[in-house]
Description:
The protein has one domain: Rossmann fold (3-Layer(aba) Sandwich). Helices cover 30% and strands 35% of the residues. It has six helices and twelve strands. The strands form three sheets. Strands 1, 4, 5, 6, 7, 8, 9 and 10 form an eight-stranded mixed beta sheet that branches. Strand 8, helix 4 and strand 9 (158-167) form a beta-alpha-beta unit. Helix 1 runs antiparallel to helix 2 (28-47) and helix 2 packs across helix 3. It is globular.
Amino acid sequence: MIKILGEQNSLLNRFIYEIRSVDIQNDSMRFRRNLERIGEIFAYELSKELAYKTTQVQTPLGIAEVPLSHDKIVVSSILRAGLPMHQGLLNYFDGAENAFISAYRKYSKDGSFKIQFEHLSCPSINNKALIIADPMLATGSSMILAYKALIEKGKPKHTHIVSIIASKEGVEFTRKNLPSKEATLWLGAVDDELTVKSYIVPGLGDAGDLAYGGKE
Length: 216
């Protein structure tokens, strides 16, 4: 299932506008905060898809019944660009467990690259709602690599892929490599193109560099 939240008129589109804008995005603190706020919006929308049961709560004047989710959640992100979104998701899913994946593009002299996986820190995800956050879904390769590494820690009840900007190519690749009835893609916007270096166009540039500074 694919849900593109930016197709609806909401405050989300203001934050997407700001992280795309060359006049605004170079304020790295604001860029990180916008990623975090977008993560919070995704958390709220995603929460509607969880399993709920009615729970009683004692108030000063009596007993009230409130539907609460009983799903166990693991929030995971791909370092380093995924960290602000991870925090936004965790702000709402504050009882969630956490996982972190180290993966990056390793370039060759001819400009080609492969996704290099280095480290995974993760609890058991067996029968839990697994959320994987990364601001950009370009080719989809790093997302699928992360997913395959995570499911070695158990079989999730459902997997939620959360990305702000995706390419059509990345969406299609990810969709083909995930179990169709056990995964949902949550996206802010889908752009048409990838450059020869697999950057999304119009996209927003390098989310990791904008959030945390350049790298060598």
